[in-house]
Amino acid sequence: MACEKALTKTWLKTEVPTINEWIDIVYKMYTMERIAFRLRTQAVFEDSWFKWLTYVSNIRPDFV
Fold first, then answer.
1. 12-to-7, 17, 21 alpha-carbon distances in Å
2. I need a surface site. Which of 12, 33, 40, 50 has the fewest CB within 10 A?
3. Which pTM does this prediction carry?
4. 13 within a domain of the structure (yes/no)
5. What range defines the domain where residue 24 resides?
6. Is residue 2 part of a domain?
7. Over the stretch 6-60, which tens digit does the pLDDT of each residue have?
8. What one-character DSSP code corresponds to residue 14?
9. Residue 4 per-residue DSSP state
């Protein structure tokens, strides 16, 4: 899903999406899912996103 969004933003351009653009898109998805899961249950959400949060916190500390 993030891939599709990143590619459609740069569809007619010659440059490719940067890693920061990808991370920003995933961050928006993360935020929406966090809101949705808080309405249901928190434990499932954190389990689902644990690997991504571990990976991205090294690259972009502002993400977490």
1. 9, 12, 16
2. 12
3. 0.58
4. no
5. 18-64
6. no
7. 777 777 778 888 888 888 888 888 888 888 887 777 667 777 888 888 888 888 8
8. S
9. H
Whether residue 6 lies inside any domain: the answer is no
Beta-carbon neighbour count of residue 4 at 10 Å?
9
H helix runs in 1-64, sequence order: 2-9, 19-40, 42-59
Rounded Cα–Cα distance for residues 64 and 61 (Å): 6
Q: Which residues contact 48 (CB under 8 A, 6 or more apart)?
A: 33
Distance, CA of 1 to CA of 25 (rounded, Å): 9
Distance CA 50, CA 46 (A): 6
Total length of the chain: 64
d(CA 41, CA 18): 33
Number of domains in the chain: 1
C-alpha span between 31 and 57 (Å, rounded)? 15
